Amino acid sequence: MAGLEDLYREIILDHYRNPRNRGELEVPPATMAEGFNPLCGDEIQVYVQLSNGILSEVRLGGQGCSISQSSASMMSTAVIGKSTAEARDVMREFKKLMSIHEDGLDSGTTSEQTGDQPGASGLGDLEALRGVVKFPVRIKCATLGWNTLDQALDLLEAK
Amino acid sequence: MTESPLDVTAIKADFPLLQREVYDRPIVYLDSGATSQKPQSVLDAMSQYYAEINANIHRGAYLIAEQATTAVENSRTALARFIGASDAEEIVFTKNATEAVNLVAHSWGRSNLSEGDVVLLTTLEHHANIVPWQQLAAERGVEIRWIPITIEGRLDLTDLDVLLDGVKLVAVTAASNVTGAMPPLRHLADAAHAVGAKILVDATQWTPHLPTDVVAWDADFVVITAHKMCGPTGIGALWGRRDLLEAMPPFLGGGSMIQNVTLDGFTPAEVPTRFEAGTQPIAEIIGWHAAIIFLEGLGMEAIAAHERDLTAYALRTLTERFGHDLTIHGPQSVEDRGGTLSLVYRDIHPHDLSQVLDQHGVCVRAGHHCAKPLMKVLGVNATARASLYLYNDEADVDALADAMVAAGEFFAF
Asked: What are phi and psi for residue B3, nearest 5 degrees?
């Protein structure tokens, strides 16, 4: 049975206590998207600034639980300095990490138990969120920042 | 505490779910505000219907069809008695309380409200008693006005006279699902009627806990749901004054709700059949009757007294044990207050708090409780809500407090 230590890894609590890239960017020139988790009321604002084709700055506003906040914090450090295409690659890898294999739904089997090696995704610290899939209700917490970044990138690319 | 008005140990034994363990601990169920657990008698009544008298109602002229029809109408009669209504035909079965509000908004609202008319709501309302009116407002140009709340989470009626100007309907909760506050319904009904307005009461969080008397409230419409009062999900009801219901057009069209159908049109059936289109959730209606019998067996006065004592114990215990580390949103005394405790503990996000509580077998709801306008007034995005019911006791409150200590240690930074 999944225990709290599977969910609340030390690196997650660290990002929750000391969130990276908190704040706002002036819009414009920056782009902002806002996301809500309708289940729990969490909200997040993701600000992105593109310079010479790379995400030079990302800032995060809003409030939420340790999982949504730490996931967004780690996301910000993971995508700064990347192109929007590279950021989307990270996003896809992370979404894969957060997906429950269909055949494992009943047994609670996760990607961790079905052969994907930790570290194989190249997600670095974000690997710590792997345990979230054992708590399916919390997956929406972990993906809130990412879905909002996705919207911000859409807005950016539509410009 | 002095001797409880209820024998909670015996009551717990009636609820199969309360016998189970989670994480190798006995379950401590403190989320009855979301849905209550069901006693064995309700489960038995529903399976007995399917096993012995399963037939569609108001149709077949054979024995089991008549037995099923009688069982459904007996439930309607019991429900009328339970809420203090004298006429069972004023009870309309709906899917839930939400559908009952929508029925009133669509049928009464579209017949009686037009541009410039005002619907007066309160910031205590659940989304179920907000969104249907906002839909009507968007369609008809109806104005929505709000009764504000005090810092204690009660209604602030200071400017009620001003707010009532032009109002055609007041729609108010009987008990907040977030703060537990119980507005003065009769006062609001008198004020509404004085300006010629009707009043709809959302009694979802009231009927499970206290004696209900729609006549004493002088309400015009009351919406209720079964699943928070020991009954099954999927069944609720609208009670409305007969003269109002009779003047209202049907909401959903289909089978059963007609007197006659021709190629040119239809004649609606009488009240309440007019509002009960299609096959009803028969087993659920019968299960609801069993729930009413269960509650009446314990006595609503005794249930109310037990919950009042337990709420006082919870307010006292949590305040003593956690002091300024804990904010309990809502009235701090048991006067006109139900056993719904919206908690914010230190800076631990309610989602994280409830996750740790879960590991201790303690079930609470975390989130905005479908009352986002209220949460905004309270200045929070979310709370952890513990809601007490007839099968809870002081040990359950102590288990909550112990688990909160563990959460405090886990998130100590």
From this structure: -55, 130
Q: Domain ranges in chain B?
A: 8-30+299-410, 43-296
**Among A6, A9, A18, A40, which would you mutate to test the B interface (most chain B Cβ atoms within 10 Å of its Cβ)?**
A40
Catalytic annotation on B363? no
B188, B370, B374, B382: the catalytic one is B370
Give the per-residue pLDDT at A116.
46
- Report chain B residues whose CB lies below 8 A from the CB of A43: 381
Least CB-CB distance to A63: which of B355, B381, B413?
A: B381
Is the model's pLDDT at A39 over the cut of 90? no
Please state whether beta strands B236-240 and B91-94 pair in parallel, antiparallel, or not at all (unpaired): antiparallel
Closest residue by Cα to residue B307 from B69, B41, B18, B6: B6
CATH of B8-30+299-410, one of 3.30.360.10, 3.30.450.20, 3.90.1150.10, 3.30.70.20: 3.90.1150.10
The pLDDT, as a whole number, for residue B381 is 86
Question: Which chain A residues touch B375 with a CB distance below 8 Å?
Answer: 41
Mutation target to probe the B interface, by most B beta carbons within 10 A, among A9, A12, A42, A65 is A65
A31-36 and A43-51: which strand pairing? antiparallel
Yes or no: say if B216 and B84 are a contact pair by the CB < 8 Å rule: yes
Q: What percent of chain A has pLDDT over 90?
A: 50
Average pLDDT over residues B372-379: 89
Looking at residue B342, its pLDDT comes to 96
ipTM over 0.85: no
| Beta-carbon contacts of residue B14 (< 8 Å; ≥ 6 apart) | B39, B40, B41, B294
Other C-beta atoms closer than 10 Å to the C-beta of A103 total 9
DSSP H or E run through B64: helix B63-82
Q: Which top CATH class is A4-158?
A: alpha beta
Nearest CA in chain B to A39: B367
Check whether domain B43-296 has CATH 3.30.360.10, yes or no: no
Give pLDDT, residue A121. 58
Rounded Cα distance between B56 and B42, Å, is 20
Global confidence as pTM: 0.91
- On the question of pLDDT at A115 being above 90, the answer is no
